[in-house]
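Consider the following assembly input.
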Amino acid sequence: MTIGIGVIGYGYWGPNLVRNFMSTAHVRVVGIAERRADVRASLAQSAPAISVFESEEELIARDDIDAVVIATPVSTHYPLAKAALAKGKHVLVEKPLASSSAEVEDLIAHAEKGGRVLMVDHTFLFTGAVQTMTQLVRRGELGDVCYIDSTRVNLGLFQPDVNCLWDLAPHDLSIIDQLIGSDIVSINATGYGHIDPMRPDMVFLTLHYANKQVAHFNLSWMSPVKVRRFTVGGTKKMLVWDDLDQDQKIKIYDHGIEFQQEDQRTTILPEYRIGDIYSPLVSRKEALKGVAEHFIQVIRGEAQSTMDGQRGLRVVRILEAAQTELDRNLQIVARKRQAVLQGATN
Amino acid sequence: MTIGIGVIGYGYWGPNLVRNFMSTAHVRVVGIAERRADVRASLAQSAPAISVFESEEELIARDDIDAVVIATPVSTHYPLAKAALAKGKHVLVEKPLASSSAEVEDLIAHAEKGGRVLMVDHTFLFTGAVQTMTQLVRRGELGDVCYIDSTRVNLGLFQPDVNCLWDLAPHDLSIIDQLIGSDIVSINATGYGHIDPMRPDMVFLTLHYANKQVAHFNLSWMSPVKVRRFTVGGTKKMLVWDDLDQDQKIKIYDHGIEFQQEDQRTTILPEYRIGDIYSPLVSRKEALKGVAEHFIQVIRGEAQSTMDGQRGLRVVRILEAAQTELDRNLQIVARKRQAVLQGATN
Amino acid sequence: MTIGIGVIGYGYWGPNLVRNFMSTAHVRVVGIAERRADVRASLAQSAPAISVFESEEELIARDDIDAVVIATPVSTHYPLAKAALAKGKHVLVEKPLASSSAEVEDLIAHAEKGGRVLMVDHTFLFTGAVQTMTQLVRRGELGDVCYIDSTRVNLGLFQPDVNCLWDLAPHDLSIIDQLIGSDIVSINATGYGHIDPMRPDMVFLTLHYANKQVAHFNLSWMSPVKVRRFTVGGTKKMLVWDDLDQDQKIKIYDHGIEFQQEDQRTTILPEYRIGDIYSPLVSRKEALKGVAEHFIQVIRGEAQSTMDGQRGLRVVRILEAAQTELDRNLQIVARKRQAVLQGATN
Amino acid sequence: MTIGIGVIGYGYWGPNLVRNFMSTAHVRVVGIAERRADVRASLAQSAPAISVFESEEELIARDDIDAVVIATPVSTHYPLAKAALAKGKHVLVEKPLASSSAEVEDLIAHAEKGGRVLMVDHTFLFTGAVQTMTQLVRRGELGDVCYIDSTRVNLGLFQPDVNCLWDLAPHDLSIIDQLIGSDIVSINATGYGHIDPMRPDMVFLTLHYANKQVAHFNLSWMSPVKVRRFTVGGTKKMLVWDDLDQDQKIKIYDHGIEFQQEDQRTTILPEYRIGDIYSPLVSRKEALKGVAEHFIQVIRGEAQSTMDGQRGLRVVRILEAAQTELDRNLQIVARKRQAVLQGATN
């Protein structure tokens, strides 16, 4: 059985999706929908075997398309995915799955009712680094996870319909979903918007978990330097995933705190233990190829989805809660600034 | 006029203070007070010309000591400085100046009344990197400062009487005091304590300023990797100070946001401008030598202090406000964790 | 006028050539010749609009192919290029242009006689870094060039028909050809072969120039770490091109030697001058795209070639001379080893 | 038994020697000889307990000095060491031990005759990195050593009486002496002198060993960037010692070449094996402290010397042979340049 694939949106990510699906077994890329006329014209020339559509509806209506991949602005995910599911298509949606948990729940319900696959493209889960890190954590190599501290900053692309939280945090949240099992009990979120104070391009997010764990995220579209550093502190060891390090994406530090024996203690201060550093070889396979293969395997009934709607829902729920806290916080800041300004004027 | 110097505390920082004062003009290092007998014995052998005291009072009482340098745990700063000022000594105190703003205010009052010099050792202000950065910002090379984002993490030394906020933040706060002129209107602070949840060894602090600026600090004693990266985002350029980079401690990025002309705008999204990167040569002079020289110059009436009590007070006030917010936040987290735990038990 | 392009060889580099020519104006990629049946089958599926040939002759014979691009093992460059020129095609050949200067001279003669374009793909000349570096050197920003020191090592691909000298040195030699004007007066070359001592996978090459300049190359297929560092020492400044540095490919160091005035000299030792470091923005355009465009422009008579046969000839002549010295040296080493071995046996 | 130490020369290295011997057990630093009056004056003030001499002879003549440490320009090592041995002193000399093998042999003879300790300060042998690397190689962790490739470049200090070969190579040669057992059969050496072509400040040195091993050194006083990278290629693994990497001075790469089984071979090309990377914790103890302790232990008869005269002799012999080859080579270059110049004039 060959799966006919239609891709909606041929902007930044679309070409990568098309390229990876084209080289995946049991797949035929049937069509691409794209609104910009010049991109359609260029596609017609470079990929004459693929049908090009101006209208997404037309693509969704095609009988030879079994599955639709949606790589459009976030606000359009829900209507497009819903329309595709309504026509009996399987659906893979770029992260975040939709703009609200209500939308995601509705998509999940439709997919279940129609017996179709609904997946979200949490690409990082298919990187060698994240897969290695997840295995190490699950095997208990680090002991219990105490903290996660992630910096994901660079001069990012401003997105038309989401702020930097909804653009960048889904990566980290989908990864953490694999590393920390317990529930979030408290969220801190604040940030800064260079242009519109209420629409942050820098976000500082802290999640506190029931089981005495913490996760901190520094997310920014406005850093002159690109940093992709994700640290996991465990009771036994510590791990750093630096996605920009070509040779040592994962480093495991045999470092930790040592407590003296009760009877030898002269102080309550712990001491550090510094040990070896170890970098396991991680797969260099393109992550998106793994996503494409996984989507096809799930459609063909050969695998259980690891990136299903429920997972997308968990991520969107945290985004919503973080956004609420972010709004609350930025409004306080705005109010206090206003008060200072008025005080200065009077 | 030669200034007789007495140093109280010969732990981690004391030897550096002694070494630098010994090589400073117009100075004689007269005595060192240290409670540990083995350290005193070793000092007596290696520095026979310096008097060694078990009692701080004894050192402070010496007539040939004109100025006292205090490098002891934070909780002792106030009584020692007060005693020294009472004996008419000039005083240089390690950061933070004291444990509370009330203590600092009292010390300032005593110093003013007695006409003595009261200084706080904000060493970083005398590094070539911070001096260069400050000049660049003040000259307007970066345009207006929008944000500061500082990461100051490593496997730090656990301090006996302060948490990681009071240990690490004074560095950043004393530096920012030179870069941002406007008032703080709102503070977010949260964190994590590996051993005692209420005594954090990781702190995430955000300061919102009246004049639409933000400063974020990631402070940790528990990172396997040492990071000392301080980013300043301006309306014209961006600057990164990486204190671990031996060749390029300061990098100025000619990067920024470009807005299209009103009539050409087809989108509200800004575009990035990427330009050259420039690293000015920064002085490699040992910062603490600069501090020692400055202290002596101020005592001799040759310079105005740039690290006086008022400056130490501003830093301690922010620490206090941040601690209040941190306590409030960590208590919420603790309560919610407790609630989840009880819910799980019931 | 649209130029019909045929590409011979679809191994490591061929796909990049095809992709870049496909997106170049005035070009139609007509055919690809490739000996491996599985690669041909895969091509037929993924690029149905391009004719695929088993035989290079067949491709060369096609009337709708105006220009042939040769990306095959080095030993086949000469016969394939000669055959293509004989059929009146323009020819672009991967580096090195051919296996010997005699072959190159013959190709140049054929190209001139037939009025066809003969070019060698010295891709690095079209990188933003090399173009920026060349302009800086030509403008005299560094003063006079004193030395070039290049390290080009990693776990490289073993080539079937050339050693590491002929594989790696063409990059550096084509670049240096733009930076140093004077003639080579003396060559040192030695190396090491892990498998066959006479077929080195590590080569150390030093070129001495008439005008008191030196160039040293450390070339290796056997380094665990990839290094691409190219240093230019000038009388005024120094420049480092690190091709693996994403942010600062070019750094200009305002460092140099200072000589004291004649009458103040107390010593013959020079002193160092350390200054600022500056990284100009370099173009991130794909170099091979520039090569493809340049080839087409030269064919269309819109540009003079900067990578013509003469340039390829200069590089191959240095390779030949270096190979002679390398052989001579490795034979001496082999003889001496043999002597020691015999001495040990006797 | 306390050993009285006298240090001759208080320039760049002398203060480090004094500081380390002062904190070594069973040692009293009795005197320092230094020709510069201002340095003597400053010493008298900062270290009143140590006698300061203008004349080396005077220091050597002192009865309370049992051992002399010589940290003066290379050309003075021999006469000073000889004089000290003649007075029955033990002697520790900075690297290289002397200016010629004849001198070293004479010193060894004197030391043996007088029953005194003669040691050379090959400091790097006491670094944690070199000790770890040596153990790994000797345990066979890397398999057999195939190659060593060392880059030791920066803006170094010009030395008054030696060129960059004699200044920098002793470090690498003393280290290699521990890693490669077989004899050198052939040497290549060339270089470049910015000021005097026959007095190189850049040297490229290659040693070929009987047992099919090679060592290459890139030594320079004229690099804008400091590099200290030492690579060891083994038949099983590869190792990189980067002395500037604070966290991972030693990295062991589980990389190598794989050969296919005889019957499966379709090609003679080997394939690469890429594996994990591992960084053992290395001691951070100051190397010179280890040297000082070792010298004292050997004098006290508690240890066999690992840095004795024979070892210094092996290093100086290689330096001599390399210098001969360097001179021969640079004279050829000079002659050929002259010929080109004359050709150009005629």
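Chain C has nine helices and 16 strands. Ask yourself how this observation constrains the way the partners meet.
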